[in-house]
Amino acid sequence: MRESRQSAPRTKPAIVTSVRRLAQPGTPIVSYTIMALCVLVFVAEVFTGQLVGQGSPIVTALLYYPPYTVIEPWRMLTSLFVHGSILHILFNMYSLFVLGPELERMIGRWRFATLFLLSGLGGSVAVLLSTPNSAVIGASGAIFGLFGAYFVIARHLGGNSRQLIIVIVINLVIGFIVPGIAWQAHVGGLLVGALVAFVFVRTRDRRKSGIQLLLLAVVFVLLLIASVVGVQLIGS
Question: How far apart are CA 208 and CA 219, in angstroms?
Fold first, then answer.
């Protein structure tokens, strides 16, 4: 007589389930990844003296200082992931949490990553051209790029963007009034983000994907040219 045995159902580890959920289409994994990187970098800053008046070598290594552009151009992007205080990172991460996931679902992951990085680069270029002796940190330029992109996309879809305009204006005014804020990065990021979004909405058709990539490359090249001009102005 055979004894029937029922094997216990296999359960997948929670980490596997979580990773698979993140990999599903529509999950704003780029937004979450950017937030995680910013938080991890800030935690590292804290443990290396950022909040006790000594400064952190991590901030020194990643901040953007225009005279370093020629020898360390990557600082134009690494500075996006560095923040100077708890309020600084809280404000930026909250803004990214509110805007990022929705925008990422609307335009897709790689387009969102492109938008974020080009906007951040635009903010750094604006600092290079306008205040070349200022050192800057923070994701604000890229986040203002998200503001600009959201405005362009909302207008294209026929949505009411009045509240968004008010939010953008208030944040720009704060940048002009409060000392220590790189409003130049805000303006640069806002303009580049709006331009990138304009490219997206004008090339939505899949048949125009090649044109879209070409136009994004043009935006990137224009930022590089502006960077070269800025470097030349510093050296003159």
Answer: 17
Over residues 52-78, the mean pLDDT reads 90
Q: Check: CB of residue 121 under 8 Å from CB of residue 192.
A: yes
Where is average pLDDT lowest: 4-8, 36-40, 47-51, 208-212? 4-8
Q: Which entry of 56, 119, 124, 140 is annotated as an active-site residue?
A: 140
First-to-last alpha carbon distance for the chain, in angstroms, is 96
What type of residue is 122? G
Backbone phi and psi for residue 136, each to the nearest 5 degrees, phi listed first: -130, 150
The phi and psi torsions of 215 (rounded to 5 degrees) equal: -65, -35
Q: Which is catalytic among the residues 83, 119, 186, 227? A: 186
Going from the N-terminus, what domains does the chain have, and what CATH number goes with each?
A: 28-235 (1.20.1540.10)
Would residue 140 show up in a list of annotated catalytic residues for this protein?
A: yes
- The string of pLDDT tens digits covering residues 91-130 is 999 999 999 999 999 999 999 999 999 999 999 999 999 9
Helix (H, G, I), strand (E, B) or coil at 158: coil
- 31 as an active site residue: the answer is no
Name the helix (H) or strand (E) containing 186.
helix 183-202
At 136, is the secondary structure helix, strand, or coil? strand
Task: Specify whether the CB–CB gap between 151 and 194 falls below 8 A.
Answer: yes
